[in-house]
């Protein structure tokens, strides 16, 4: 019984962990909407992914979204952009973002 309780507790703790860190260059990139990129130039696309489940427990959507946005911002900086816009919904821990350079 103790082992089952320990395994359940560990799984719950791990599903709430953030595995992604925003880089210093990623901090210069912001998340925007399609309405915000009128005068911007598209510089690329970022397909990012994170862990969607640990063992058999699904991770929360908010936690996944936070990590995916951080990953997209990091990738956006690497591509020379300063804005990212979500272009898809989350599917199995994966999401696509457009990367833009805006004035």
Task: Describe what this molecule looks like in 3D.
With 103 residues, the chain is α+β, with helices and mostly antiparallel strands. The protein has one domain: Hypothetical protein apc22750. Chain B (Translation Initiation Factor IF3), CATH 3.30.110. The chain has two helices and six strands. Strand 5 and strand 6 form a beta hairpin. The longest helix has 18 residues. It is globular, with a radius of gyration of 16 Å.
Shape assignment = globular
CATH-defined topology = Translation Initiation Factor IF3
What is the CA-CA span between the terminal residues?
A: 60 Å
The CATH fourth-level homologous superfamily: Hypothetical protein apc22750. Chain B
For the record, the CATH architecture stands as 2-Layer Sandwich
- Give the count of structural domains: 1
H-E order? HEEEEHEE
Radius of gyration: 16 Å
How much is the average pLDDT?
82
Q: Tell me about the biggest sheet? A: 4 strands, mixed
For this entry, give a set of tags.
two-stranded antiparallel ribbon, single chain, four-stranded mixed beta sheet, globular, disordered N terminus, 103 residues, alpha+beta, Translation Initiation Factor IF3, 6 strands
Short structural summary:
With 103 residues, the protein is of the alpha+beta class. The protein has two helices and six strands.
Ordered list of secondary-structure elements with their pairings:
Elements: H1 2-15, E1 30-32, E2 41-49, E3 53-54, E4 57-58, H2 61-78, E5 83-86, E6 94-101
Parallel strand pairs: 1-5
Antiparallel strand pairs: 2-6, 3-4, 5-6
């Amino acid at each position: 019984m103790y082992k089952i309780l320990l395994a359940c507790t560990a799984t719950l703790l791990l599903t709430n962990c953030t595995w992604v860190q925003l880089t210093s260059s990623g901090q210069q990139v912001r998340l925007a909407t399609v309405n915000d990129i009128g005068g911007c130039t598209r510089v690329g696309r970022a397909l990012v992914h994170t862990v969607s489940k640990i063992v058999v427990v699904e991770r929360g959507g908010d936690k996944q979204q936070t990590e995916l946005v951080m990953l997209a911002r990091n990738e956006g900086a690497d591509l020379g952009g300063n804005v990212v816009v979500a272009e898809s919904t989350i599917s199995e821990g994966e999401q696509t973002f457009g990367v833009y350079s805006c004035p």
